[in-house]
Amino acid sequence: MSTYRKWTLAKHPSGVPSEDCFALEDFTPDALSDGQVLIKTHYFSLDPGMRGRLSGDSYAAGLKIGDTIESAGIGEVIDSKSERFAVGDMVMGGLGWTQALTHPDRGLQKLDPALFDDKVAMTATIGVLGVPGLTAWFGLQDLGQPQSGETLLISSAAGPVGATCGQIGKTLGLTVIGIAGGADKCAYLSGLGFDAVIDYKAEKDLTKAIATAAPNGVDIYFDNVGGTMLDAAILNMKPKGRIVISGQVSEYNNETPIGIRQTTRFITHRLRMEGLVVYDYAKQFVQAQAAMAALIRDGKLAYKEDISEGIEDAPREYAALFAGANFGRRLIKAS
Amino acid sequence: MSTYRKWTLAKHPSGVPSEDCFALEDFTPDALSDGQVLIKTHYFSLDPGMRGRLSGDSYAAGLKIGDTIESAGIGEVIDSKSERFAVGDMVMGGLGWTQALTHPDRGLQKLDPALFDDKVAMTATIGVLGVPGLTAWFGLQDLGQPQSGETLLISSAAGPVGATCGQIGKTLGLTVIGIAGGADKCAYLSGLGFDAVIDYKAEKDLTKAIATAAPNGVDIYFDNVGGTMLDAAILNMKPKGRIVISGQVSEYNNETPIGIRQTTRFITHRLRMEGLVVYDYAKQFVQAQAAMAALIRDGKLAYKEDISEGIEDAPREYAALFAGANFGRRLIKAS
Questions:
Q1: Which of A71, A220, A236, B11 is the most exposed place for a label (fewest CB within 10 A)?
Q2: For residue B323, what are the domain limits?
Q3: A159 in reach of chain B (CB within 8 A)
Q4: Contact flag A270-B277 (C-beta cutoff 8 Å)
């Protein structure tokens, strides 16, 4: 058997996860049991939203010391004791930060190579067609309840969820305003067709900046950030506005959460705020992926991938996500 | 013409409204124009939820200096230049802290004396059958989406909204837990059939106290308080729990709002939080009032009124509401 490498949890982080929270281990996969497959990972993702599970706090079942770090991934079946998968099949699933893994033949999606071409890369299945894109799709359409002509505000808009959400919003006839940090990200969003962009790093008063960009108020706030940015959005919501809580990246590394202050607005403006777990929509995934792939081929949905090579760098790249340095879907080529 | 007295706004309060924020004025009503009625107030209410409108801040249209303080009231038409109302008619509407007023013949509900008896007092129309009761009725049923067997948690449960909400919850097959301050209020709620009562003044850790009372978690939190109590409830919500924001009495007197910290729970537990403005349901009021009156006559919905006599005391009694001293619907006999 070959030897592979994987990242496991060495200690529960507090704050932004430092490199000593992770351990790079060599391992040799066990022999397969019936109903198992051996997968060689091609790419895995770095997910800010997974941060909470590293803490192992008492409220949510989290990772234990020694567990492989979780992530989405795509890989190739290189050995199989299952009738469901043959050697050579490409699969997508929760593979983790590892070069290979033994996996039951459930919870994996077989990828049809014919679906991918020069416009839709196979890596899109863990990006714009994966959890980030599906989060944007169902969060905006099911929780946001958009009506053509309404105004949509998106935080962390240059991230894979936010950028997808904004482009879907344009196809639905919404006025789309993005919040992002820095001129590069703002230019990227303008290029995607966003109607207005707010560079939060350049604004002293975000509440006023939103009011300027959306003088008639915001109908839907698609929130990936939380904290003070969420409060600034709440103060600009129209009556009966909907707030979709997709991510809270400003909170994940806080020992004491920041939260929001403007709860009385929920009464005076009849606001609704709702959280999203994308797996609730699992039965509709295939349909949504087909619709988004069509938008990509029609040139209405662009996506950006930020791929680096080598499993060694995963912890450092993961910490960098919280500094807001990159944009696009953050992937690691595992070889 | 007779002379009457009314309370007007003398200055915008900060914090709990002090007596010098109000001015007691003598006045003589102007002669009626066509389409107007003169109403002699019998009772008016003291509403914590009106507090925000006293501040006259920039976000919500509030009262101006010299405006009559707003409240619900019932009164008698003593002069009429309208075909819609005759002298002697009893009416309910937004009469204010005044012994009499000139009012257009719109926005008033004529009360049928035959609907009231020794079980349902006419004052109930500005209490259990008025805004507080209707807030409980629509907030619980429309925003709470209760299913028989679920667990309902209510803050400020001994207030007119909370106590009504809990009793409606029992008729819907819910397990009902109330949070109130002090042994008297808790005993009152137990007498109303609440399954469990938490005396927040006697608990050091409200989050744990809720967990003890609701070991399997809370499906619906009907919130009249906000702030730290709302956070404690959020930490006990079941996945897909619904939070109804009915009031935020812990916030109304704060210069800097307290707010909540636990927004990431909206993702991990798919929570929904929604504010209520009862007037959105105006077309269904008559039907709901009839249903609640039937519950009262069946002995399934008790209500408590806390009536004091004399318009002079209104500002002092209003400030006392925020100290949590009273319970039941707080009314003033205006004569």
A1: B11
A2: 4-127+304-333
A3: no
A4: yes
By C-alpha distance, which of B306, B315, B318 is closest to B159? B306
Query: Is a pLDDT exceeding 90 seen at residue B322?
Result: no
pLDDT surpassing 80 at residue A127: yes
- State the CB neighbour count (10 A cutoff) for residue A187: 14
**Complex ipTM:** 0.84
Tally the domains of chain A. Answer: 2
- Amino acid A146 reads P
Joined tokens for residue B156: 């400020």
Q: Are B209 and B198 in contact (CB under 8 A)?
A: yes
Gap between the Cα atoms of A117 and A35, Å rounded: 31
* Range in A279-288, B32-41, B83-92, B250-259 the model is least confident about: B250-259
Question: Is the torsion defined by CA of A288, A289, A295, A298 positive or negative?
Answer: negative
User: Is A84 a domain residue?
Assistant: yes
Chain B nearest-CA distance from A272, in A, is 4
Percent of chain B with pLDDT over 90: 83
Q: Are residues B39 and B143 in the same domain?
A: no
Gap from B271 CA to chain A (nearest CA, Å): 5
Residues in B touching A131 (Cβ below 8 Å): none
Rounded Cα–Cα distance for residues A92 and A125 (Å): 7
Res B1 pLDDT > 80: no
pLDDT tens digits, residue range B289-306? 999 999 999 999 999 999
Helices (H) and strands (E) in chain A, counts: 9, 15
| pLDDT exceeds 70 at position A60 | no
pLDDT higher than 80, residue A325 = no
How far is residue A334's CA from residue A28's CA, in Å, rounded to a whole number? 16
Chain A hits for B161, CB-CB cut-off 8 Å, are none
Tell which A residues from 190 to 219 touch B, by Cβ distance under 8 Å: none
Examine the domain organization and report whether A146 and A241 are in the same domain: yes
**pLDDT band with cut points at 50, 70 and 90 for residue A215:** very high
Residues B107 and B163 in one domain: no
**Distance of residue A85 Cα from the nearest chain B Cα, in angstroms:** 32
The residues with which B100 forms a beta bridge, in sequence order, are B40
Task: Identify whether the C-beta of residue A86 lies closer than 8 Å to the C-beta of residue A80.
Answer: yes
Q: Does A16 touch chain B (CB under 8 A)?
A: no
